[in-house]
Every structure is written in structure tokens, then in C-alpha cells.
Amino acid sequence: MHNVILIVLDSLRRDHVGAYGNDWIGTPNMDALAAESVLYTNAYPEALPTIPVRRAMYTGMRTFPCRDYKAAKGDVVLIPGWQPIPAHQVTAAEVFRHHGYLTGLFSSVHHMFKPSMNFHRGFTSWEWIRGHEADHLKVSYGGDLEDPGSLPCDEMYGMVGHSLPYCLANVQDWRGEEDWFAPRSFGAAARWLERNGGDQSFFLVVEEFDPHEPWNPPKEYLDLYFDTDSYDGRRIIPTVGGPNEFAEGELEYILAMYAGEVTHCDTYVGRLLDRVKEMGLWDDTVVALVSDHGHPIMDHGIMHKVPAHMYNELMDLVYMIKGPAGEHGGETCPAYAAHHDVPVTLMEMAGVTPPTGLDGVNVWDIATGAAEPARSYATCIFYPWLWTKDDRHVYMTDINNTEERLYDTTVDPKETNDVAASNLQVCRRLRKRLWDEIGGDPPRYEIIRQGHDWYEYPDIHDPTGTFSKKLIAERDAKKRRT
Description:
This protein is α/β, with parallel strands linked by helices. 27% of the residues lie in helices and 15% in strands. The protein has helices spanning 28-35, 50-59, 92-98, 164-170, 181-196, 219-222, 250-278, 312-315, 342-350, 363-368, 424-438, 469-481, and strands at residues 3-9, 38-43, 102-107, 125-128, 159-161, 202-208, 236-238, 285-291, 319-322, 332-337, 378-382, 385-389, 393-398, 404-408. Strands 4-3-6-1-8-9-2-10 form an 8-stranded mixed β-sheet, sandwiched between helices.
């Protein structure tokens, strides 16, 4: 049986990786892995964002269309599909462990470890790398968020993103690059390999939340893409999901911050894979590297993930799989692939029989010609919006079909010219595709947590937002008094 390593980089855009055609951002380690892998060119999420993706990727079962949603106690994110893995679903880690594998998880994705969540189920050992984004590691920062004096060391030049009161508090003891998340996540995984690799087959998952915002790469990585000496704009920039306004030079700075994050992650991907090679495990190890989704950076006029903007900067996935001994390395596969294919593919490549009844398929067999493509299109939900893509069109609409958009990607690959109004028959056909796949109307929810008012608090991403009717009443009463 072969060893398996799954690397997940959160919010990594496909168009920012050299193997997918980028020519200005350094990703030498991912590019080298791609040269020994099959590179999938039509890979897309089937439900968004972070947690719905991982439900599918850890189980092989679709999250789409997010049925049976109930807000998880202890989590402020209210998005259908954002729930623990259902108890009756078997995780990939449980399957591998059942077949005698050591299973290890190293993750800086704090959402996976919130109250009520269970994404470490099945792992022999696991480690949560604390402090990213709005992880409640420390009491939120109370100072001026845009004051560069809030930064902990010279190596951190700036910070861009949301949840900055938590982010700034969590990094106050950072002093050097070794304190950043990628070195800690991949370093912990490498140490686990050194202790456990070689004597027993292993399934290792590394979940690095970078390059998810906030973007704050070590300065040497930012300097690869930006002249900090001549920059006089804001170094700490709070942003929100949706339209944002920036002063001259600030957007260029933000784009460079994200690029620096990508290269920083790439460096530590390389260090882990180099250790695998040094230990003599490379030829007998299957490696998959995927992103959970991309990330808008003022593409189509918005920052960050927004359901109504399911454009290619969000939807295109990095998705590469290295077979044993690098067989089929450097090949590309245009078949439609998704996150729920990951566990089925990795199990069968390792020589492990997956449980019956899974929704995913073995996309390695499709790439190597051992099986026919399973799909002619992709579908996704980012509640309350639905999306589908085939070899010609991208179509999106809300669950009530009050708005719809259509793009002909054969002539408009950047999806800038909405042709829905002049192609109503195509829209009807693609809308029917979505409704048929759902099996009727999409589920609809009142997105508010019911009961347990004493436990709730405002949304950290939206200080004006509240969850319960009681809190709504309190907010409105306060407004009337003022």
C-alpha cells in the first residue's frame, strides 16, 4: 500500500501558480510537483466556502445542495452547508486508519476546530496550529487597527484583510519568519513524518489556511513584488467582503501582499516535500495538492468571497496529483474534477477500497485512460447562489431565480460580458440542469440561529450583524435611544 499526502492551501488562486500559466509569481515548488503530477484543468468546488468544501473532501460525499442545515452552536458563520461532518458519513481518515495506516492532520484552519465541528475525526494524531484569522486565541486587539505600531516586528511590514482585531492580537509575540503559519504547519507535519514515516503506511493531511486573508507575508516575500521603499499608503488595511475603496497604490500593494503569501506557502510546501524525498519515501508516496477555492481581489469589483460573485477567480481550483514514482508526470487532464473526488481517488491509488455509495469518482483513472470521464459539467452552491459550468457557458442564479447571469467562455474567458438577456433559452436549459441535479427546488432557510440567545454574539466579520431575534430587538432598541 502506498503512502498518501494531501496538501490543502486555502484561497489559492489557480491563475497565481506557474504550472497553470502565471508568469510573475514565484511558485517553483508547486511547479516542480506539477511536473511529476497530473494537472487537472477543470477542477471546481461543488459547495462553498471553507467548511462545505471540507465536508466533501473528507468524505467523498457531496455537500451540494446543502440540505438539512442547522446553524452549529459555537460558530458565527451562518451559511448552509457550514456544518460538522454528518455522523453517519465515514471520513477518509477513518477508512485509512481502518486499513492499518497512521493518520495525521496538521491544520491552521481554525474553522475545523470550532465548537461543534469534528474534522479531526479519524486521525491517529492531529495538531491545530493556533492563531489564524479570527481564531479566539487571544482577546481582540483594542488599539488603532491602521497604526503600523500595532505590528509585532520589522519582518511583518503590514496586514490586509478582515477580522484584524483578532489577527493583530494573535501575532503580537511573533519575532521572525518561523512564527508564521506556513512554517509552523508544514514544520509540524515534517516532524511527524520524521517520527512515523517508513515503518508504517501513512495518510498525512496538511491544511494550511494561507494564502487566506489576512495577508501579511514576511517582508522579504512582499519585496519580491512591491517597492516598499517608495510606498506611502496604508500598511494595515481593513477590508470587507464586497466593494472596497483604496487610495492610489494601495490595490497594487494588496495584490503584492497576496502574491507574497503565495510564494511564502510555496516555500514551505517545498520544504515538506524535500523531507519526504530525503527520507526515501518519495517514489512510494501519492501526493495531492489542491486549493479549496480561489479569492477575488477586486476582480469584478469586489474583495473576498461573495455568493453572487462565483466567477473564475473564486471557482478555479489548483488540483494536482502525483502518482507513485511520478508516473504520468507532466500530463494534464481536462475532465471535470471536484473535492468529493479526492478521497476516492487517493484511496484507490493507495490500494485501499473506498466505502460503497460515495459520490466521488477516481479522477486518476480518468486521467490515465483507465476510466471514462464521469461528468460533462460542474455544479456548485454558495448559498443562496447556484452555479454551473460546461465547456462553453458559465451560468449563475440565486435560489429564487430573481437574477441570473450567463457568460460564453469560448469568447469571454474572464467572464466580463453577461449575455443572459440575449440567450434566455440557454439560461432556461442551464437553470433546469441545476434544478434537476438538486432534484427539485433548492432548500431554503431563514439564516438566523434560533434559541440559545445567551450564547450568541455579533458577527465578527460584520459588526452590525446579529443572529437572534432577541439581539435584533436589542440592536433596534439601542438605535431608537440614540
